[in-house]
Amino acid sequence: MAAGKGTRLKSKHPKVLHEVGGKPILAHVIATAAKIVAPRDIFVIIGHESARVRETLGGTGVNFVIQAEQRGTGHALMVAREALAPYDQVIVLSGDAPLITPETIKHLSAFHATQGATMTLLSAEFAIPFGYGRVLRKSPRSPEVRAIIEERSANSAQRKIREINSGFYVFSVPALYALIGQLSTENTHREYYLTDMAGIFHRARKKVVAFKTADADEVLGTNTRTEIVDLDARLRLAKCRELMAEGVTIFYPEACVIDADVVVGADTVIEPFVQLLGKTKIGSDCRICSYSVLKDSEVADGVVINPLTVTDNAQIGAGAIVGPYSRLRPGSEIGENARVGNFVETKKMRLGRGSKAPHLTYLGDAEIGEGVNVGAGTITCNYDGVHKHKTVIEDGVFVGSNSTLVAPLKIGHGAYIAAASCITENVPADALALGRARQTAKEGWATSKRAGRPNSEKRS
Ligand code: UD1
Ligand code: CA
After folding, report:
1. pLDDT at 457 over 90
2. For a Cys-Cys bond, which of 60, 370, 388, 410 suits 352, CB 3.0-4.6 Å?
3. Span 92-123, pLDDT tens digits
4. CA 181 vs CA 81, 198, 239, 245: distances in Å
5. Would you give the distance in Å from CA 214 to the centre of its chain?
6. Residue 428 CA, ligand 1 centroid: distance in Å
């Protein structure tokens, strides 16, 4: 069930697309469901902003059922009637509770089978049950349930019950649709509550049971911003703990943001306030310093990423040193033992083994060989306003500071580029290229100026 608006978030975006742990809330639930049944047997009920939800999660291969008007969780299941007709049993998951694990769902489903129940709900014991539906058991020890009572319909005695309904259920499909017509909207929200099926089945002498999970945290919902942030923190910390168990040192893990799919090798040290996002892979024996944000990037072994480095779709070879303040944009490949320093921006380029671009440089659409030194202030002029052009710098080239390299351009191996040159033509191997005006010095000029005498404009 993922059709709701999420009124309590006060958001214009659908609740299930809000992110925890770096991906949409609903993506977590679908991933868990896909570990139990094939995607073709998963039906996601969507409604509020359904086109956006479908677009975001269509890649998972699941089916979508549209609940155009969201008239409650019971109504969500009414809408799914045709889709579920071929099935005997349905497991209902709440699209807004992303921490649920496949193991717990399997236990729930097994309990449903051994109890021979018509409806089985997953319950949990909460110290503060406020806001959740409460489970009314036949008797305290009995697995059987008389009813689920929603917070706003509960009397003060019922509000003291700390066993809550998690929003996860198993139903017999034929029994559900035989009696779902008995649901009514006579309640505070004028909605069809799926939870009322417990009472309906109970009165029809069909068995309703509750399976209480040992890990209450798994069923936490994301109804408010505070809950979203809380779950995000739990997921992040769990990821850090997992990496630490695998031999990674993470200082101040509460301040690091590491996405679920990130891989980090043993003996790598991650300093406070680092973000490792998307499909980032870090080798072993690396040091990722504070305030660096690495997205979808691959970092080989023994790399140092100095503070405040930002990378996106970049590859960094073993032993390289990057940063502080480097920006590696998509398609940047930094070779083994290469060095990229402060205020260097790279894009779609390869920097060969052992080459250096230590400061203040832009290298885009470039192929740079091994052992090249790129001086401070070097710019590859890759864009003519219409097209992008390539700069090739062969092995062993020395590019003097403040050089402007106007692409398309090839600088042959071993060549020297004099500082402050504007290079517009190919440079042969081992040549010295100068592309700047010759310096002039006008002797006595300053003295004359200070004395108030006119300086002649004549060139010396
Ligand atoms: C629901 C339960 C409550 C339980 C809690 C656990 C009901 C009436 N109450 O309350 O007993 O303790 O979950 O988290 O079910 N949805 C639809 N269509 C709708 C309405 C909701 O698909 O018309 C979806 C929502 O997107 C959400 C899920 O169903 O993913 C639960 O809805 P929500 O409004 O969050 O229910 P709660 O008030 O949390
Ligand atoms: Ca909820």
Report:
1. no
2. 370
3. 999 999 999 999 999 999 999 999 999 999 99
4. 11, 14, 44, 51
5. 29
6. 71
Q: Which atom of ligand 1 is nearest to the CA of 97?
A: 14
Q: Which amino acid is at 86?
A: P
CA dihedral 133, 138, 142, 143 (to 10 degrees): -50
Q: Is the pLDDT of residue 458 over 60?
A: no
What percentage of the chain exceeds 70 in pLDDT? 99
**Distance from the alpha carbon of residue 180 to the mean position of ligand 2, in angstroms:** 21
Q: What is the per-residue pLDDT for 447?
A: 96
For the CA atoms of 298, 302, 307, 313, the dihedral, rounded to the nearest 10 degrees, stands at -10
CA distance linking residue 421 with residue 135, whole number of Å: 78
Q: How confident is the model at residue 455 (pLDDT cuts 50, 70, 90)?
A: confident
Could you report the per-residue pLDDT of 204-221, keeping only the tens digit for each? 999 999 999 999 999 999
Q: Which ligand is nearest to the CA of 194?
A: 1
Using an 8 Å Cβ cutoff, are 140 and 149 in contact?
no
Reported in sequence order, the residue ranges of 352-387 that DSSP labels E, i.e. its strands, are 356-368, 373-374, 379-381
The residue assigned the tokens 């996002």 is: 277
Report the sign of the C-alpha dihedral through residues 138, 142, 145, 151, in that order: positive
Dihedral angle of Cα 293, 297, 299, 303, to the nearest 10 degrees:
-30
Distance CA 295, CA 310 (A): 8
Asked if the model's pLDDT at residue 318 lies above 90, the reply is yes
Q: What is the tens place of the pLDDT at every residue in 321-352?
A: 999 999 999 999 999 999 999 999 999 999 99
Q: What is the pLDDT of residues 241-288, one digit of tens each?
A: 999 999 999 999 999 999 989 999 999 999 999 999 999 999 999 999
Which residue pairs from 53-62 have beta carbons closer than 8 angstroms and sit at least 24 positions apart in sequence?
A: 53/2, 53/14, 53/16, 53/17, 53/26, 56/17, 56/24, 56/27, 57/24, 57/26, 57/27, 57/30, 60/27, 60/30, 60/31, 60/34, 62/30, 62/33, 62/34
Which residues are within 8 A (CB) of 311 and not within 5 positions of it... i.e. 6 or more apart? 292, 293, 294, 295, 297, 305, 322, 326, 327, 328, 332
Ligand 1 centroid to Cα of residue 93, in Å, is 10
Tokens 């309990």, residue? 111
Q: How far is CA 363 from the centre of its chain?
A: 28
Give pLDDT, residue 454.
86
Contact 157, 247 (CB under 8 A): no
Q: Are 357 and 375 in contact (CB under 8 A)?
A: no
Is 359 designated active site?
yes
- Quickly tell me which residue has 């449903």 as its tokens: 112
Output the residue whose Cα is nearest ligand 1's atom 16. 4
d(CA 162, CA 183): 25
DSSP assignment letter at 335: P
